[in-house]
From TrEMBL:
<keyword id="KW-0560">Oxidoreductase</keyword>
<dbReference type="InterPro" id="IPR002347">
    <property type="entry name" value="SDR_fam"/>
</dbReference>
<comment type="similarity">
    <text>Belongs to the short-chain dehydrogenases/reductases (SDR) family.</text>
</comment>
<dbReference type="GO" id="GO:0009688">
    <property type="term" value="P:abscisic acid biosynthetic process"/>
</dbReference>
<protein>
    <submittedName>
        <fullName>Uncharacterized protein</fullName>
    </submittedName>
</protein>
<dbReference type="InterPro" id="IPR036291">
    <property type="entry name" value="NAD(P)-bd_dom_sf"/>
</dbReference>
<dbReference type="GO" id="GO:0016491">
    <property type="term" value="F:oxidoreductase activity"/>
</dbReference>
<dbReference type="Pfam" id="PF13561">
    <property type="entry name" value="adh_short_C2"/>
</dbReference>
<keyword id="KW-0521">NADP</keyword>
Amino acid sequence: MAVIKLEGGFALITGAASGIGKETAFTFAESGAAGILLADIDESNALVAAEDSKKLAVDPAYRAIAIHVDVTNADSVNSMVAYAVKEFGRIDYCVNSAGVSIAIPFPTDIRRLTLQCKIDISTYFIPFSNSSVEDYDKVMRVNAKGTFLVTQAALKQMSVQEPRDVTTTRNRTRSLGRGTIVNVASVLSFGAIPQKVAYIASKHAVLGITKVAALEGGPLGIRVNCVCPAWVRTAMFVEECTRAPHTADIIKAMISQGRPAEPEEVSESIGFLCSAAGSYITGVGFIIDAGLTLTAHLG
């Protein structure tokens, strides 16, 4: 793991039962966090992740607590934040990783893939006009509304906390402000591809929510950013590969390193943004894509 220092800080992580959220909990534990509230709609797996994080923690007083949350429900989100404050006294880092996609095959530019991958993926496409309203609503509720509710609740709590200082290299003191929020968006927050209208609309919303929150949080000493990864090797990615077996060929053709990101490559970027090393960064959509957007037509 890269060197990230989060000593003494308390974190709230949603979507912490799996994927990027779980890996972020592990990264934070390894980086010296004093406590983490791992929140997920799947409380049982959040509990497993909490126990696993304890094995990685470097703070001898480290605490990891699992809790159920429905990020689409304001009361549930507010109760989660209140519980974190009750247990830890404050929230220094809030990471919103809860998110969903819809189980449809992954599309991209047919002509480019036909030439580069020599595969026919035209049967994977579903026109915008046939997209399900129910699917759209589900994705927007979790990805967009959920991000709004968690960011709003975290901002309210952080705004009443005292600023926190840390000692950086060469014994310098640096202010971390009242707190830091990192949302998980997508490289598709900056563009679009066919067939994923709900997912793309929701991730554009995450970027917009992040930027507005950063503008309002800045004067309060609160930084708000989002990470924007391309493919990440999570359970959701594995399921996508099962539905669309040519996904690996697509990645080899479009990603310079020929592979998806590992979850820790995203979680360590989140840790950087939360740490003193990222103390002058706010309102950013931090792209993690091995150069995909340098050549791909995303907007």
